Amino acid sequence: VTIWLKKVFGDWPIPQHEVDEQTVNILCKLAEYNEATDRDVSLVIEGLKELSKEYEAEAKYLERLLSEELGLSIDKLSRKGTMYLDVLVSSAMTLETKDTSLASFIYAINERTSELYTTESENREMELELKNLIAKITTALKLETLLEKDLKNTQELTKVKKAKADCKSQDLQFLKLKCQELKRRIKAAEMDLAATGFDVSLSHKSLVSLAEKLDRLQKDIVPLKKKVKSYQDLPP
C-alpha cells in the first residue's frame, strides 16, 4: 500500500491518514483497482497500436482496390466520396473492426453493446460496494465517537471516585493517628495514676466488671426472694 501511495503521489508528500485494519483494507482495494485499470489501459493502448497497423494496411488495400478495380484515386474522389470514406474509416477505428466489411461492423457493434452492458453492471456493483464502504466507515466513525465519549465519562467518573477514595483514606489515617494518640494518653494517665498510688480496683474497667457482677447477683437473688416470701406467707 505504501509503495502504491508513493507511486500515486510522486514527489508530493503522502497525506496523513489513520493506519488501522479497515483503512488498510480500503487502500488495498483501491490499489488493486488502480493497478487493474492501469493494466487494462496498457492492453487497450497495445490493442490500438495493432489496430492502427491493421487500419493502415486496410487503407492501402482500399486505395489499391479503388485504383486498380474502379480506376479511382483518393485524390480524385469527390468531396462527398471523401467524406463517406472518412466516415467509414472513422467508424472502423471507433469500433475497432478488423476491416470495413458490413459483417465486421455488425459484429463490432454487438461487441460494443455487450461491453457497454457489462461496464454498466460493473459500475453499479462498484457504486454499491462504495456505498457499503461509506456506510461502514460512517458507522465506524460514529462508534469511535461514542467510544471516545464513554472513555471521557469513565475517566471523569474514575477521577471523582479517586478523589473520594483519597478523602476517605485521609480520614482513616487521621482516625488511626487519633486512636494512637488516645492510647498513648490513656497509658500515660494510667502510669501517672499508678505513680500516685491509685487503686487499680477503682479503675473504670474494674468498676464495670463489678457492676456486671452486681447485676448478675441481683438477678440470682430474685428467685430466692420469691421463695422466702412464699415461706413467710405460710401460717404459723
Automatic annotation (TrEMBL):
InterPro entries (UniProt xref): HAUS1
Pfam families reported in the protein's UniProt record: HAUS1
Main location: cytoplasm
Swiss-Prot/TrEMBL GO biological process terms: cell division; centrosome cycle; spindle assembly
Location(s) in or outside the cell: Cytoplasm, Cytoskeleton, Spindle
Coiled coil: 116-192
UniProt keywords, alphabetically: Cell cycle, Cell division, Coiled coil, Cytoplasm, Cytoskeleton, Microtubule, Mitosis
A Gene Ontology cellular-component term: HAUS complex
Family of this protein: Belongs to the HAUS1 family.
Protein name, entry field: HAUS1 protein
Species: Probosciger aterrimus (Palm cockatoo)
